[in-house]
Here is the input.
Amino acid sequence: MRKKLIAANWKMYKTPDETRAFFRDFFPLVVGHERDEIVVCPPYIDLAAALEAARGSNISIGAQNVHWKPEGAFTGEISANMLLSLGITHVIVGHSERRQYFGETDDTVNLRLKAALESGLIPICCVGEVLEEREAGLTDDVLRRQCVRAFHAISSKKAAKLVVAYEPVWAIGTGKTATPELAAEAHAVIRRAAAEIFGEPFASQLRILYGGSVKPENASALMAQEEIDGALVGGASLEAKSFAAIVKY
Ligand code: PEP
Here is the structure.
């Protein structure tokens, strides 16, 4: 049995004060919730406030990216050591917005993923096709390629903590959700790729989250799929009530 993981990606939303206010509202709604793991990934400037607010609770805090070098002249970047020194446990890697708007490639995703795993952070590695690729029947190839390149030169031992998020780009922030069946098919493609790369035992343990317009209304149907091991939630994670409703699908 793979324990489901429900993660919030706040993108570029909320100040530290807004972060504290979110947790004040969110805690009472999920207190004692142990069925699923809960992770919240705020912007860098909110991490300290989020960690302080979540201390001793059932909620882990993650960052939205990590650089592959321990330190250096890389303006605007943050290293794994820096995140660990704060108490961060998780990190999103390869989000499609990073790939689309900030020049992230399969190769930089691989470097970031390696650095996260080496350091002991739990990476949530995002893969997913754009609409044109789906319409051209290329979804399986794209997912396979993204996995092969992202996992390049990583051993199954090193990858032990890896989490993957299937995020069809056409479903992110658009209100269009993949049907549970369609998401499950894509998850199976990712799991097969993971089996080829890391071996069957690893793949059967690997958690693959679905992301793309997950809302309280569609969460339970998605989470009912055996292939779907949780959710990565953008828009609907910004409001305590709606994120709690998804956590409790
Ligand atoms: C995301 O940012 O990872 C995401 C899935 O966003 P949304 O839930 O808003 O589609």
